[in-house]
Specification:
39% of the residues are buried. By secondary structure, the chain is mainly β. It has three helices and 33 strands. Strands 9-10-11-14-13-12 form a six-stranded antiparallel β-barrel. The protein has a six-stranded antiparallel β-barrel with strand order 3-4-5-8-7-6. Among the domains are: 223 residues, Thrombin, subunit H (Beta Barrel); 90 residues, no CATH class. It is elongated.
Length: 462
């Protein structure tokens, strides 16, 4: 199977879009549908890549095509409306959004107005054997009557031959309209002259062609752009409410306003806390604490027993010890050298040393790589100590319409007072003992085995 795109000199594409004026009450004839589609369908020339099809969805200069048509575009794309006619318009457009998974792209022509455009229809009423019309530029410039001219729009009629679903949602519309390379990105119109799909691929010479349903196009167009930078927070204030702000902007006029939520996740925890965001003057805000509770202080210790080079490294809760009769938190220490006569303790300032008995250590549960190990730390010959880092917090802003996610942006919550430089165990040759991990497959790949005749080449293919 091949994508309906042409190489340099061969391009693709037909897609449909919303119109500025309402259609009449009576259904248009097939000839009228063809005229409307033809007027809003543009030849898309991609510099140094090839050509394809695009169509206008708004009079202000918004066009839709396939992502694979403009994938390797460098610079502006030339769009030609009414090629070869006295009303021909040559426009320059830029890609403002592209989605490889959806295989859709949105182009904008700056300064345009009153361009002929197409209305978007609905995928709900699509049925097999329904009449459809498709517009585009099969074979690109090969069909031009003069090498210096652009090709004329081709208008073809046919019917829906299959509806392909996945997970209960329509994924592809199969049509028997005569299409070829170069039709990719063009519109497929229903009997009301409204866009119900965007041509994307097909089997060459077999009248088995596919279009992206308009519900996917609507989702692509309505997805807003989100600009979001989480606030910087002090470690001691991670459990205090702070204000999160995001800018959410739609790329197309009259797009429905989304529901926007803030989701906070902490590393090592399955908990995800969700907060609704409210819009004010174009900025969406929510107030929430990055952590649901104050971060408990965890201490990383590296314990060496005897004179051997091996050490056990893990984390424990902070405790208060007595050194020479004075209370000192374990988190305030850097290293303990145990001695039957007089132990030495280096404090966290890396300057102060205390000498005397160390009281308060004993059998302790240590988290070693996720496994709990009970060790008597009072039997160690040396302890190297440092404060464990607080679990990272990730903030996510999600935009939804009708309960369906359209866009998301996520970023880590930065901490203004970074943790002290990590200090390794006193003995450089010490060995860190970590818990064993079970092997397992951590990645999966969905692939599609394609027939050599499947239109799958991007712009520039043959």
């Amino acid at each position: 199977m091949l994508r309906l795109v042409t190489g340099v000199g061969l391009l693709a594409g037909m897609v449909l879009s919303p119109a500025s004026a309402a259609w009449g009450a009576d259904k248009p004839t097939k000839v009228e549908i063809g005229k409307r589609g033809k007027a809003a369908t543009a030849f898309a020339e991609v510099p140094q890549v090839g050509s394809g099809t695009a169509f206008c969805i708004h009079p202000s200069g918004l066009f839709v095509t396939n992502e694979h048509v403009v994938r390797d575009a460098r610079g502006e794309i030339t769009l030609v409306l009414n090629p070869t006619l006295a009303t021909q318009q040559v426009l320059k457009a830029k890609v403002v959004r592209a989605d490889k998974n959806a295989d859709l792209a949105l182009l904008r022509v700056e300064g345009a107005k009153d361009l002929p455009s197409l209305q978007l229809g609905s995928a709900d009423g699509i049925a097999e054997l329904a009449d459809v019309v498709a517009c585009g530029f099969p074979l690109g410039k090969i069909l031009a009557t003069d090498k210096k001219e652009y090709p004329a729009v081709s208008v073809n009629a046919g019917s829906v031959t299959a509806l392909r679903h996945k997970g209960g949602e329509l994924q592809l519309i199969q049509v028997d309209v005569a299409l070829n390379r170069g039709n990719s990105g063009g519109p497929v119109l229903d009997d009301n002259g409204k866009v119900i799909g965007v041509v994307v691929s097909g089997f060459e010479g077999r009248n088995i062609n596919e279009a992206i349903p308009v519900n996917h196009l609507n989702r692509f167009l309505n997805a807003p752009d989100i600009a979001f930078v989480p606030p910087a927070v002090k470690t001691a204030e991670l459990d205090k409410p702070v204000e999160f702000k995001a800018q959410v902007a739609s790329l197309v006029p009259n797009a429905p306003e989304p529901d926007v939520v803030l989701i906070l996740r902490t590393a090592g925890s399955s908990e995800a806390r969700e907060y609704p965001m409210k819009a004010q003057n174009g900025v969406w805000t929510a107030t929430a604490a990055p952590l649901s509770k104050a971060p408990g202080t965890r201490i990383e210790v590296s314990a060496r027993f005897g004179t051997g080079p091996g050490a056990v490294t893990g984390t424990i809760n902070d405790v208060v010890l007595k050194v020479a009769g004075k209370p000192v938190r374990l988190s305030g220490m850097r290293r303990i050298e145990f001695n039957a006569l007089k132990s030495k303790v280096l404090l966290a300032d890396d300057r102060t040393t205390l000498e005397g008995d160390v009281v308060g250590l004993g059998p302790t549960e240590i988290d070693v790589g996720g496994q709990k190990v009970r060790l008597d730390l009072s039997k160690a010959s040396q302890l190297a100590i440092q404060t464990a880092e607080v679990g990272a917090v990730t903030a996510v802003v999600v935009a939804r319409i009708g309960g369906k996610e359209l866009a998301r942006v996520e970023a880590p919550v930065s901490v203004r007072d970074p943790a002290q430089a990590r200090v390794g165990p006193a003995d450089p040759s010490s060995v860190v003992i970590t818990a064993p991990r079970c092997p397992g497959t951590r990645s999966s790949r969905n692939c599609r085995t394609c027939s050599p005749m499947w239109w799958s080449v991007g712009a520039g293919g043959t």
